[in-house]
Design a protein that fits this description.
Blueprint: E1 4-7, H1 11-22, E2 26-30, H2 34-41, E3 50-51, E4 63-66, H3 73-84, E5 92-95, H4 106-110, E6 114-120, E7 136-140, H5 147-162, E8 165-168, H6 171-175, H7 177-204, H8 209-228, H9 241-244, H10 247-257, H11 263-283, H12 289-306
Parallel strand pairs: 1-2, 1-4, 2-3, 4-5, 5-6, 7-8
Antiparallel strand pairs: 6-7
Helix pairs in contact: 7-8, 11-12
Length: 307
């Protein structure tokens, strides 16, 4: 079985390291932050080599995983190439970015490495190997054989070891990879922001968020997941005043928000999210053109008043 090295011990990198170590597939990790290395020690085998710089790594592994911030991948790949040079020949180097293409690993490829992008379509709020169970990984492989086949084999080995599945990203997706990544941002980051705003609003109303919100959130998510099967049919589930074109209820919400201590922040969030929702509702055929314009005008006027 091939072994892996992991550069970067953030939530994603450490989750991968934990999963690989559990299968005896992790050769070493590297992270510059002393704090992150110390935190990782409690979750990884005591005997596992853990380096504080790429220059300290004595030898490359059959597959090196770069799990650092997107804007640092190209620089890390450059240091890796400079350190190992042609020792990377016929070895695999991959990054886990959802927005960057394989091209950010060009320096390693120039040293003979087989490069690929392998992005876990998942949110990593908590560090655990369970994050990978049954998730989809979007893959970008080299276009030329035999490098493509070799890259596919390593990708399958890694992903199947962690319990996921792979989808090769199309030429269209790769040409607009930041949009692919944005879809995950909508699904994960923005949803958390929505839940946070719902909890904050519940507190303003004097109710306990942990008591009132869980059931409605679960039902809303179930409705949304059902809607994934119906996208394009105009049947994506949407309830509430916007879906009914109920201007008076929206006005009542905003009027009562004005009485709150931090009224501008909650009104601004409410209106921006409302604009996004009515835009979606209109294009799904849920609201009419007149309802769309009336609701849009209401929210825009409120935002202008806050400017």
């Amino acid at each position: 079985m091939q072994s892996f090295g992991v550069i970067g011990l953030g939530k994603l990198g450490l989750s991968m390291a934990i999963g690989l170590a559990a299968q005896g597939r992790l050769a070493w990790t590297m992270n510059r932050s002393t704090e992150q290395r110390n935190a990782a020690k409690f979750q990884l085998p005591p005997s596992l080599p853990m380096y504080n710089s790429i220059d300290a790594i004595p030898s490359p592994t059959p597959c090196t995983i770069i799990a650092v911030a997107d804007n640092a991948i190209e620089d890390v790949a450059g240091v890796l190439a400079q350190h190992f040079g042609n020792r990377l020949n016929d070895l695999v180097v991959l990054h886990c970015s959802g927005s960057k293409n394989r091209s950010v690993l060009a320096s390693c490829e120039a040293c003979g490495a087989i490069t690929l992008g392998l992005h876990p379509y998942q949110t990593f709020g908590i560090t655990t190997a369970k994050n990978f169970k049954d998730i989809v990984w979007g893959a970008e492989y080299p276009p030329i054989e035999p490098f493509r086949t070799i890259a596919e084999q390593f990708a399958q080995d890694l992903v199947y070891t962690l319990g996921g599945k792979i989808v090769a990203l199309s030429t269209q997706t790769l040409a607009h990879k930041p949009v692919y990544h944005a879809s995950a941002v909508f699904a994960a980051n923005y949803m958390n922001a929505l839940v946070g705003l719902a909890a904050q609003t519940a507190q303003y109303a004097g109710i306990e968020p942990a008591e009132f919100l869980p059931h409605i959130l679960r039902r809303a998510l179930e409705n949304a997941l059902t809607g994934l099967k119906q996208i394009g049919t105009g049947k994506f589930p949407l309830t509430g005043p916007i879906s009914r074109g109920d201007i008076s209820t929206l006005q009542e919400h905003i009027a009562h928000f004005r009485a709150l201590d931090d009224s501008s922040a909650i009104i601004r969030s409410y209106c921006h999210l409302g604009l996004a929702t009515v835009e979606f509702a209109f294009h799904q055929g849920i609201v009419s053109a007149s309802q769309y314009h009336a609701i849009t005008t209401l929210f825009q006027q409120e935002l202008s008043a806050l400017a």
